[in-house]
Amino acid sequence: MRNLRFLSPEGSVGKGKKPWSDPLIEMMFSWSVADVFNDKLFQDKVVEIPKSFVSIETYLNSFVYPLIEEVRADLLSGFQSITQAPIVRVLSLQAVKNEENSYLAVLDYSSYKPTNGDVVFLSNGRPSQASNLLSNGCSDVNLALFIGGGYERQRKMKVSNKLGIEKLKEKNKGASFIYAVYLINVTTYKRIWKALKSQLNQLVFQLLPNPNHSSVSGASALLDTDSFDLRNVELKEKLMQFKLNNSQIDAILNCTKSSKLDSKHRIDLIWGPPGTGKTKTVSYLLWVLQTKKCRTLACAPTNTAVIELASRFLSLAKDDCSLHLGNVVVFGNETRMKIDEDLKDIFLKFRVEKLQKCLQPISGWRSCIKEMIDFFEHCLSWYQMYQLDPNMKNPKGSMPCHGALLSLQDFVKSWFVQIQEEVTRNLKILGQHLPRPLISIENLRDINEVCDLLGGFLHGLTMQLDVQVVEEAFKEDNAGNMLCKARSDCLKLLRKLLLTLNVLVNGNDIEAMCLQHASLIFCTTSTSSILGNVKQIKAIEYVVIDEAAQLKECESLIALQLPGVCHAVLIGDECQLPAMVRSKISGNAKFGRSLFERLSQLGCKKHLLNIQYRMHPSISYFPNSSFYDKQIKDGPNVLDKKHEHHYLPGDMYGAYSFINIVGGQESSFGHSLENFVEVAVVNQIIKNLHEESLRMKQKISVGVICPYKGQVQAIQNKMGEYDVSVDFTVKVSTVDGFQGSEEDVIILTTVRSNTYGSIGFVSNRNRTNVALTRARHCLWILGNGSTLSDSKSIWMELVLDAKARGFFFDANEDMSLSQAIIASYIEQGSIDALLPIHALSISQNEMEESAQKDESDHAAITSGAIKSFIEDGSTEDK
């Protein structure tokens, strides 16, 4: 295999080969088309990643080939989707001097704007299908990696095959353009590779634990309150005031009991099942770390999780005047993060833009303050000059005074307002956005005081004043004049700020300055790699990883390998969805296993958050029994009668029910599955809910969870849109798309319906757990009870439980559902299949009338606008 000659198992460059700055990318560039399409290329190299390791070397190397195989599988997936992939026209390609295989490309951004790390396929046009690459006998692949920007539409790229690119250029000379078709983004893969090859952080040695290793400890150990000092006792009392339960408080206190003076490296685990207030707990954990002045990185696998955590912390921090938001930074891709107005205050890009203007030498804060000092000292002489020349401009060189000659008071007010606005804005930016090490508490007090004084001076100028009073305000010897006193106090503070507030930073270094001095940084785990490149950055002491069970262990090393990290807190739930892995070979080798899960399997203690506040007790009962060994208690809010909602009449539509659909037919939908009968039932239930919400004028959020993308598409197509007069939202998505979210009502369609009990990946316990724990008030499960029971999986247990608790119903018990099922068979032309299944005494004419009525009703409500959307996120396996 020609690709292996570039890389030894230890990751070094092979003999006789010129060193390459990125061995992983060089290996990818060396693959032929056949290599990319060969699922067995690394089969003999990928071995199962063990639970424990004898050395750091074997630990890090255990991820190398599974990572390489995952890159190959991801690249293959990109080729297989090439007919729908984003594409950009390359207007010109010019080789970069003295840089091997580097080109500057001028692109037409009309349809796709590449970002750094994007790998594209260069060709004369979009291939009609991926298999053509093999059938045409193509050996080398013309790949390019975007590695930087240029002017306007110019981008820098590294190519895999310079000869192939030159042939493409020659072939297209004077004719058509070259096209770049998106395949994958390799940024995270490169960062993982770097973490696997980096100089080791001491914390990594704690990742090879004996199950009883003292440095990997869950917060579940009982607190020795006698050893706690008074501050910790006070902290516990304060946390209790925030309405945290005992398990949440114990988790926070145990994870923060080792102070920054404690040099011992350790890892803590917090286990947060669905609805147990995990994000709330983490936000208060971060708050405690800030009060202890511990420099902290808070990260998560996705932008969505990072923004949720940052938003929760921000709402908490705004209620605590002791926390300085200039110490808090969120950074990453603004578009992907969907930064709202509230988060802009702590978003790095926004902060840099603000500070750049504020720190300008000519028009920045120092210039404004000097201008205000000049105004206070020379205002009377300026007015005398103005009387001689009414067309004179203000100190900013603009806005000449026109019309009748201004009185002294009007002159003072008009000029003061312009300068005061600039001074106030600049000083508030400094006070809000500078990190605490660069601005003292005394500076902040002075800024607030001078802004208040300037505001008070302006207010005084709005009153009707004698000319003498205004003149005396600008004289040094009249302490009895309130304006004079305000002016004098302002001058003292402004001069003091010029002397004491020394922010000496080049405009280009502001971003680095913010990261160097921030005490709390939010970003994705992958993006945290950038922190390792910031010069003179202060060491990160704590790494807090939220949703840690959704993160590949090797990806968590990106954050854990940062210099100075001595304490990590992992928060997650290994009973929910793990990280996605495209390669079956790497998946079977446990490449998708998280560090949280592995440490749990080794017996490391975890602190369990043991009270859930989301689900009605009837909903939480089965997941609690099946996945959490009945360790989770129902919170007082879900036990309250107010949490019980009856959105539709009948026992079938209580808090929890399994609605048995006999005879539903699963069918292929491309590479996915759908069940048209369950689609019809889902559509009818949503229609009923919509009508009821209009009648009762109540807000309802509905989620429809499908294990297959084909079912998602079928439901979306059938459902259409609803004209609403109250808030009625519907979200249709895969199980992956619902992880971390919740709705009032969840309708779960299981799709599988056959006589042999085959349910494919629907049987996955983690996926089942996520699907069953998204509902607040009602969870209605649709499925073929016989198929699910015959699967001998978790679904057999669920069906038996529903029957035992009296929550098992037949869809035909509801006339509207029965009619919807009949109509779906007629629509599919399968009336003959319907008769043996449904013992309904309905004639052919009655069935057709029912179908016509259903279609008429559906058409009447598909004209409006409902917030319905699809989120594709699942990897499917029939």
TrEMBL record:
Example of a GO cellular component annotation carried by this entry: chromosome
Keyword Nucleotide-binding: yes
Record flagged with keyword Nucleotide-binding: yes
Record keywords, A-Z: ATP-binding, Helicase, Hydrolase, Nucleotide-binding
Pfam families associated with the record: AAA_11 (PF13086), AAA_12 (PF13087), DUF6469 (PF20073)
Superkingdom assignment: Eukaryota
InterPro entries: DNA2/NAM7-like (IPR045055), DNA2/NAM7-like_C (IPR041679), DNA2/NAM7_AAA_11 (IPR041677), DUF6469 (IPR045529), P-loop_NTPase (IPR027417), SF1_C_Upf1 (IPR047187)
Domain DUF6469: 111-201
GO terms for MF: ATP binding; helicase activity; hydrolase activity
Gene3D superfamilies xref list: P-loop containing nucleotide triphosphate hydrolases
Domain DNA2/NAM7 helicase helicase: 243-584
CDD domains cross-referenced by the UniProt entry: SF1_C_Upf1 (cd18808)
Domain DNA2/NAM7 helicase-like C-terminal stretches: 592-784
The protein's name: Uncharacterized protein
Organism for this UniProt entry: Vanilla planifolia (Vanilla)
